[in-house]
Amino acid sequence: MARRALKLASLTAAASGIYLYGSKFLDPSDFGVVRVGRTIATTALITYDYLTSLRSVPYGSEEYNFLKSQVHLRSAERLRKLCCVNRGTFIKVGQHLGALDYLLPEEYTRTLKVLHNQAPQSTRQEIEQVIREDLGKEVLLLVVKQIFPDFEFMWLVEEAKKNLPLELDFLHEGRNAEKVADMFKNFDFLKVPRIYWELSSSRVLLMEFMEGGQVNDRAYMERNGIDVNEISRNLGKLYSEMIFVNGFVHCDPHPGNVLVKKCPASGKAHIILLDHGLYQVLSESFRMDYCRLWQALIKADMKRVQKYSRRLGAGDMYPLFACVVTARSWEAVNRGIDKSPVSASEDMEIRSNTAAYLPQITQLLNNVPRQMLLLLKTNDLLRGIELALNTRASSSSFLNMSRCCIRAVSKYQRSKSHSLYRKAQISLTEALSLWQISLYELFLWLKGSQLGNWVIALLRRRHHSMY
After folding, report:
1. pTM for the model
2. Which of 94, 126, 412, 452 to pair with 111, CA 20 to 30 A apart?
3. Residue of 101, 217, 252, 275 marked active site
4. Mean pLDDT by 10 residues, the chain (467 residues)
5. Is residue 252 annotated as a catalytic residue, yes or no?
């Protein structure tokens, strides 16, 4: 067991280092040899540390757990330094890892969180060099495939080829910002910086300055009188609308890109959405399958979970896919993910199984549609925020998702129907379903409020007095 744990730890460390390396390979003319050497050395050092520090210590003992924590901390600090010194898309990967509180050891997330708001700035020359990365990535990942035949990394190359040029085009980012601001103009809690087009170009983007606390900073919210549950509820509402209704999804919601601030005049809490370079446009067929998958997951309808997981490319790995999408155990998925929050034992099970099923997870990621990859990344970042705010798997998030799924599917069904009677029937079913959700939401509010407790106590007293 100890040998297996050591192997998994070293393999995970190596994969992390290689993934980071694959995100920043330069031609020799750009001093790539130095960066490559630095990355290989860091990866080797992390792997050696895991293998030697834990080798002779009984697995599961107090000493083992203490030493493992120290190795985690040293390794996380090495990865942070590697991200800072190699810059570019290393920072992007480090920011993502720092947001995975529910998945990675605390030592890693605590150390890498620094990159959310203290990332080193890149020069224009370094930014332009990112465009020239692809050939180096392909060569490296082919080598990695030979070393680790159980792992599938080539989807990283495909996504990088498509997304990096878009993220570096500031005119594209400005258009995305204006599009999402117009799309959600009725959400008074959402603020998107205004773009000053007359002073912007493909290389320079000038926008309105906005400031606030990071969305995962619970202490900031408490100091400024911001309702944590309201922020979590509104963030979930925003992303449910993006994913299920509009199919236009901001795919980089790490805490440095989502700020919160209380308006002095109105007293309302605002969510400020930054960095609009990376959006995923979902096809209609994908969006409908994803809607129906989530409806099945919320209802614990295993037949439909299997059906729509397969349609989304999971094949026979649909149980693993359901767990990856929800970040819940298979037992919780079968029971109903809205029935209970994540327990400490389930959280530990998820972390353990992630390491044990890493080859299968990478194979799954290689099989699903490319649209799914950025959605999974977005889900990871949002769950990290919910965990920091202690609002993960709240009933309000599932209610928002349910509403959006019902509206999206109903709108799609009406668009495909040519019968006025059928359209009216769909609209009536939609209205009844939304009314049921509102009624259930009212029940939950009464159950958790003082008024609700008073009414329940009064009814109990009347019941006892009758008998």
Report:
1. 0.72
2. 126
3. 252
4. 45 44 43 68 83 84 87 88 75 69 73 72 54 45 46 55 71 94 95 93 89 92 92 92 94 88 90 91 95 92 95 93 89 84 78 72 83 83 82 73 93 93 94 88 71 65 59
5. yes
